[in-house]
Amino acid sequence: MAKNNFFIPGGIRFTAEGGLAVLLTNKTGANSIKGYLVRAHGSVEKAVELIVKGDPDPFGVFYDSGIPDGSEAWVVFSGLADVYFTAVGSTMGYFARNLLSGDTGDAGQILSEAVPTSPFSTDKHFLEIGHILETRVGAGLARVIMHFN
Fold this sequence. Notes:
5-stranded mixed β-barrel, 2 domains
């Protein structure tokens, strides 16, 4: 089956990987990094910034690297996406989530966790971004089926 990119007028598209993406302004202060987790910008309309550790409001990941600050960037918010994991890597079948303050990794990176440990019912549940479909050793991109709590 051929992979296609389907564009819909108004800044929304289906990616070749099977994700749904929307066009928003990169306001991270730097070039975008593919697979880094974002949230709505706090003071700029229709813009995103990198998620910070412990923030329960992620909604997507950058589709491309190298999009300059202030430029429009595709953000995948549903379906299949390549997300950027910390140096711990990823394990197929595990839960993917934003980092907590005690986790190792940079803002915007994702952590792979088997069955979330305490405080699952509060913090970790709202940090979840999806379920991991690929195992990866070390930091980098792995495929995730995205959903947000």
